[in-house]
Amino acid sequence: MFTHVHVPACSPSNTNIVIDAQVPGVISSPIFPDGSTDSSCIWKIQAADNFRLAITIEVLKLNGVDDYLVIRDGADALSPLIGKYGPCANGSLTLYSSGSSAFLQTVSATFSVNDKLRITYKPIESDTIECSHQGGHPANLCGTNTGLKGLSGVIASPNFPNNYDAKETCVWTIDAPPGYRVQFTIQWLGIEDHRYSRAGTCGDDSITVSESRGNEDSRDIIKLCGCQRLFSFVSYNERMFVRFDSFKKNNWPGFYATYRALTPEECPAGKTDCAQKNTGPIGFSAGGQVCTTSEIQVVCRPDYVEVSLQISDYPGIIVNDSSLHLEDKACGAGYKDAATVKFTFGLEDCKTEQEDDGKKIYYKNKLYLKAGQPSNDEAITRGHMQVIPFQCGYDKKINISKVSYNARSTFVKTDAEGFGNFTYFMDMYKDASNNERVTEFPKEVGLGQKMYFGFRVESDYSDLVVFPDVCKATASSSFDSTPVHLIIEDACSRDNTLEYQYGQKSQHNFSIAAFRFTEGYDDVYIHCQLTVCPANDDGTRCARGCQPSKRKRRSEEDMSANLYIGPLKPKIMTEEAAKEHSYAESDSGSSMVLIVGVLVGVLGTVAIGLIAAVIIISRRRNSSGNGASLIVAEE
């Protein structure tokens, strides 16, 4: 689901790597000359505030017996130790930082080109991770008679995810309800095998899986050591035993395993090939707590959300729109196959709720599903409803906006006596050349990025010019609504990022940096009130141009209209794109900062979605009998 950024490989010239974990990434094997001595690599990973890091060791194979990988819960080498892992392990292990940073280091006495390392990292919002001691006891609890009676759980080597000590003996008894069977799976394994004993005997450290206490009746299932293989097994009845023994303490990673009780319907007595059930993704905190995230995959796109789930994670799930839907029951899955169900919906669709904490805008929804194994007794049911809340959080400092409909441009066609037919236009352009119009919306614009616009008047009367009375931003489609941020007033600049040069002409172009109101308003509307004048009349406001110190007055022959396009709504964009054309923050007195990209058009009295509106212009004599004033109205 995620696209991972590949971190540059560690090499002799690049051994101290700082990672800005805004998106998921991959750390791969170091690149050193074969036989290099005392090689070391450091990775410092930093996520945004209010995020934690999920660090997953996917491949660990170091050839030196004392080579290791160390992971610390913080930004430097003095941070608390999560674990020390070496020289190898099989499976995958996910570790969760307690804060927004982590420190990783590999140390090799003699580097080998056969060393293999792959670690992925992912920033995760803190409130989406739950860490606890499942079943009321730590997974790494070690004793000679530890009883486990839950329907599912986790066991791990002592001190896990840190190293286990010497002379450890742990025995776990797993009891499922009568008639059930136990599925046991080792998910991660890296323990000593034969440094101090004969090869092939697992005489140093070992894991033994048995269906009888004490292994007295030849029902030992398997004995494991080293890091060569994982193991999964379904018990013959409702009880099984797991034993772990260690000899000396080294850097070995240890192990963790999951168990799950299978119902008689899932695995009938005597059946030897019961299907293995997914126990779901888990990880560990630095303190050894088992951590889980939602069993759904949520991908936060700039203007929509993707939610996926694996059918195998929900035994007996009913895949139909009446049982599997979002908060809005009309929002069912858009994609289904034998393995996956996916929902795709807009940020404001499906009864999605918004919350604003001042730093982020959160879009929250819930997934409703019905699951449960069928029963052979009609008097009982194992079906249940499950509600899974989820959210996407967008940093307001990298928000962008969109228009809510697809409009190439907005224009107003008029017919005035003495002037003939003429039409106001306003367009957005792709760059400063103002040649290629933006024709596809929504259009994503980043933080402080330049946006290019033009307004013009076209007429069969060639000597007309257009004048911007005012261009401003408000939070609604009403021209007179508040809050207000002025952009242009009487052809004068009112925004310190505005690039605009007034002249008596039929077409004007300007650019401005993207912005957003800071008072919690979701929408931004950009309004422009335009006036058309005859070019050969020195008494018009078009002829006067920018004169901010003089009182505004309307010329007796001016033609005026107000238009708008909107609303414009927040969206997410990468910081890299936002930095391409950055500006300083506006110092105007209005309640806004330049933190959002917007799409802008002419705004005012034309209804949303309007492609063309006829403006009725009536000539009305003033008291002196000279010239005419205009009344503008919608039809």
From TrEMBL:
- Record-linked PROSITE patterns: CUB (PS01180), ZP_2 (PS51034)
Cite the ZP domain residue spans from the record: 299-549
Which residues are in the CUB domain? 10-124, 142-262
Membrane-traversing stretches: 592-617
Give the source's domain of life in one word: Eukaryota
What CDD domains does the record tag this protein with?
CUB (cd00041)
InterPro entries membership? CUB_dom (IPR000859), Sperma_CUB_dom_sf (IPR035914), ZP-C (IPR055355), ZP-C_dom (IPR042235), ZP-N (IPR055356), ZP_dom (IPR001507)
Output the SUPFAM superfamilies linked to this UniProt entry: Spermadhesin, CUB domain
What positions belong to coiled-coil segments? none
Q: Which UniProt keywords apply?
A: Disulfide bond, Membrane, Signal, Transmembrane, Transmembrane helix
Protein name per UniProt: CUB and zona pellucida-like domain-containing protein 1
